[in-house]
Every structure is written in C-alpha cells, then in structure tokens.
Amino acid sequence: MNDHDDLAFIADALPAFVSEGQEQIASIEQLLLQLEDTPDDRELLDALFRCAHTVKGSAGIFGLDAVVAFTHHVETLLDCLREGELALTPEISTLLLQCNDQIRQLIDQATGGIDDASGQATREALVARLDALHPGASQARPGETTMATKAADQMQAWQVSARFGTDTFRNGMDPLALLSYVGQIGTLDAVHCDDEAVPALDTLDPESCHLGFAFALHTDQGRQAIENAFSFAIDDTVLQIDEAGAATSANETLPDAEPSADTTAAAPARLREPAGTATADPGRYIRVQADRLDAVINLLGELVIASAGASLLARQTRNGALIEANQQIGTLVEDIRNGTLQLRMVPIGESFSRFRRVVRDTAAELGKEVALEIVGGETELDKAVVERIADPLMHLVRNALDHGLETPAQRLAAGKPAQGKLTLSACHESGAILIRIADDGRGIQRDKVLQRAWDRGLVERGVTPPDAEIFNLIFEAGFSTAEKVTNLSGRGVGMDVVRSNIEALRGSVTVSSQEGHGSCIEIRLPLTLAIIDGFLVGVGASRFIFPLDAIAEVIEDRPTATALDARGRSVVELRGRVLPVLSLRTLYALDTPPPERCSVVVIHSGTQRYGVLVDLLLGQHQTVIKPLGRMFRSLRGMSGSSILGNGEVALIFDVASLGQLAMEAATSPSRPQSPASTQGTL
User: Which of 303, 384, 524, 680 is the most buried (most CB within 10 A)?
Assistant: First the structure.
C-alpha cells in the first residue's frame, strides 16, 4: 500500500471506529456509575480497564495520537485501581467521567478535523489531576520514554512472531498499523517480513492477507502488554511470544499458518488459532447502516400493500389455485415482515442507562440525593422510537429532579428519607409500550396549577375540571408554576414540546400526582412506526383499522340500539357488566344511514375497556402506517392512515385517545371532521 491507499483505507474505516469507540465510551460511563455502588468489584474494574484499553488501541491503529496520549493517562489510573494502589472515591469517579467526556470529544473531532484549543487546555488540566493522584505514573505517552533513562535490569528482550489470517484486511485491520502500535511499548529491532505465502499475481486476492512478521522487542513491560497490543486482531492472528534466547532467529520463529492442535493446546496464551480455523460463532454480529435498513423497511411496506392488492384481485377471480398461491405469498410476506421489523427492535434499557449520568450530575448540581431505579430495561421497541423519545425523556427526568424531588433537608422535615427515588420503567401493554417516570417527591400542587390556568384563561374562572385534566395543563405552551427560573427549568417552554414530540410518534402522555407523595408521567408509544397487524372494519363507505393487539373480542349481529347510563353515555351489557360504547357514525358525523344490526368491537386500552359500533368486520389486515397530513393531525382518536389493496385510504385508530372519547358524556361530544371526506387525501 502507498500513502494514498493508506489514507483511503483509514477514511473508509474511520466511521466504524468512531461508532465502536462511542459504544466503548458509553460502556465506560455505565461501568463507572456501577462502580460507585460497588467500588471493590474486581470484574467491573477489569471490564472498565479493557474498555479504555480498547479505545486507546483502536485509536493508535488509526493514528489518533491525541486520543492515545490522553487515554494512556486514564488507563494508568485505572491500572492503579485494579492493583489496589488506589481506592475508587466519588472524587476519582467524577474525574474519570470528565476524562471520558474528553475522550468522546476527541473521537468526535477525529471525523471533522476540529482543532479545539479550549478542549486542549481542559485535557491538560485533567492530566495534571490524574498524575497528581499517582505521582509515580508515567507522564508520557507509551513509547515516548527514552530507553536510556531506564535501568538496564528493567528492560527485557522478547522475540515476537505474528502471522496474520487471510481475513485480516476484511476485518478492518492493518498489519503495519499494528506493528507501529507495538512499537509504542518499546523498541523494535530485526524486523523481518515473511511474504513467502503470497500467491502468484494472477491468483492474488487483493483483499486477502498473506503476511507475517517477526521482530525483537525491548520493553520494560511484560508478556501481557504485548498480547494486549494484538488484542484487536487476535482472532485473525497466530501469535508467538518468547523471551529472547528461547527462540531461534527471526526468520525461523514465524509460526505455521495452520498450527497443530498439540501446539495450540500446550501454549494457549502464546499461540491462538485464527478465526478461519475455528468453528463459526452462532452469535456473530454484523453492522448495517441505518439508512439501508430503513430503505428495506420502506420497500417491505410497499410489498405488503402490493400483496394485499394481489390477494384482493385473486379473490375477485374466484380461482382457487390463484387464491391459495396468494395466501402462501401473504404468509411469506408476513414472516419477512416480522423478521425484518425485529432487526430494528432494541432494548429500551440502553436508553434508560444513559440517564444514570444525568441523574448523578443534575442531583449534585441541585444539592439533592437521588437514587435511580430502572425497571423493564429489557423491553424492546423500534430503534427509531428509542432515538426520538430520548429528548422528551431527558426533559421529563430533569424536570422531576428540579421540581419534583425535594432537598434532603426538605424531605427529612416531611418525614421522608433524605434520598429521593426516581423510577424509569417500561412494559408492553395492549400492543404498545408504556413508559413511566415516577418520583416520590412533593407532587404537583393541584390548586396552584388550577389558579394559574384561571389566570391565563386556559380554564374558565370558577370551573374545576377533573384532576387528570388539571394535571395535563402543565403541557400547555408557556405554562409554569415555578417561583423562579433555574438553569434546568421554570420558563414554561419544554413540556409542550415534550407532548408534541410524543404525539408526533403517535403516542400519548398523561400525568397523575398526589401532593406530598410524588408524581407519575405515563407515556404510551407504538412498538414500531412502520407496519402493524390491524383489524379492518367498515362504517358506511369509510374504512378504519384497529391495532389487532388492542382487540379483546368482537360481538357480532346485535341491534344498533344501546342504553344510556346515568352520565348519558351509550352502553351495552356484556356478561353482566356495563360496557361504554362509542358510535363512529355519531362521533365523526358520517352521513350514512345505520344498518339494522351491527357489530361491537371490544377494545382494551390500559385499564379501560370499551366498545365501538361498526357496520362491517373485514378481518385481519397487515397495516403499513402512513402519517396523517397536517390538516388532519387534530382529528381526535386517530394515529395514522394506511393504503388498502384496492387503493382506498383507511384511518388507523389511537385506542387510548378513542377510549377517552368513549368515556366522555354524550352530552358534550367531540365533533371532529368527518373521515369520510379524507378518503384518497392525506
């Protein structure tokens, strides 16, 4: 490779390094936060050191000297913690978190080439604090120490040989870069390159590696440090390390490409099989760019629509063989859909874990003691939803810390423990995900919120709405009950954005609170933004879709007449229980005569259960979700739309908001626009 090729290789591989580096940095942060609770956990300390070492080594391969130099100081301190020379204290933990932030910035700068002078000054100050904790630690980067300053008895000579596997290049590794990185821990001598395994030019695969190196290494570090230098390519490398004098000449120490089983078993630490010789790992992962996956999801949506259209045409022909073939295709499309959507599902716990740092730093800034509890972190939902919900969750968590939880003195005066509790939880419920942000703080002052609503004209003076409506007033634009503005909150600009962002995801947010005991904010979101299983129904000429998971049962062929309860709501009796019933024809003012008999679709949403009157039951339907146009976003009870196989548009219900409409008294019904007029127009 020439210099141009090297630069091109680095440019192509750098985004992968940045992505993996950010993952390692996130792991470092989480491990540090966990260690604050168990500072003597050796496994956590070892894992922390490995993450830092991986970042340093990977940066060295790409020539990111600033990352290597700074991370080396961090690694030195972590090594002192592992060896028991220092004990992890809150002050050291805070320092390491600040250093981790700087490493993140350095890696981010690697792609943009930013020269951050202020950041350099910050890092120098952090390095001085790191070195002050361990005066005996090395003050220089690896490899910068002059060998003449070392006593002769501190140096050791090693004979190292490495033969790289054929997949080394494909896995993003450069043997020359690895060799250069090894040189940072000592002095290389008698370097020999073995190219005997390189095939003839006409049979050469330029993406395959056939090289090996043998060299002498003089260093004050041990065998483990040398092995660690090759840790990034160890699965593709046959490595042999011997003390000087124990091996033959450099030309003779290169191991065979296919080591014998006996040799491997006898010296597992020195000689390891390349990945190509081992059994394939069933748990292998592959990185895929998100935009490519999104493109596949979009094409899958079009395939679902096309499949529905083909199935409709097949039924119209009444050709049994054609109908059966389309059913088989539909089954395969559904399997492909389920498998593809699973590729985008990620545990929400990864997003929740990021708030440990937020809670720690914010609580310290506010002078509060807060314990964060995470429940249901294994709950999975669409990656796109996780990414877009991060900012609203961040605002709600900060708001709970600032306004919800009290200071230790205030909590003790109220008979509470000095340490407050903040809980982030997630679970699946009725085909959606339910996220709760709960605290045991002071709660929302209902009367104060109501008074502020009267003053602003949001509620007619003297009128007292239900508590749920009063609490939800905090999501109004510019609404705030804070006595003073802080760096975190109090300006009344944020909660309205939270609601808007959640509703943009076809979700909903509600608040419950008990003064003096705490508050709970519930966010209900769809599992995916792409495709769902739906149940298609008809009311007159209009078509609607319920999420299939929200349907409890269907009551067919019943009279359209319903009874009225004491609140004026339409109800039916279902196995001895009164069930509120919503008429879509009345709710949306559909201009079609009602049939003599209809069906009731029983919906469960959270703790609510209600019925919906429909004319036709059209069966299960794979639903590709399309957003509503801007003109129809205010339509209550709807979350999106879908295109049917015949080209018609069906509206998708938001079962939570539709349930709220069902629970309202018939004397004050909502009158949204008729969806009948929206067919074919989104």
Answer: 524
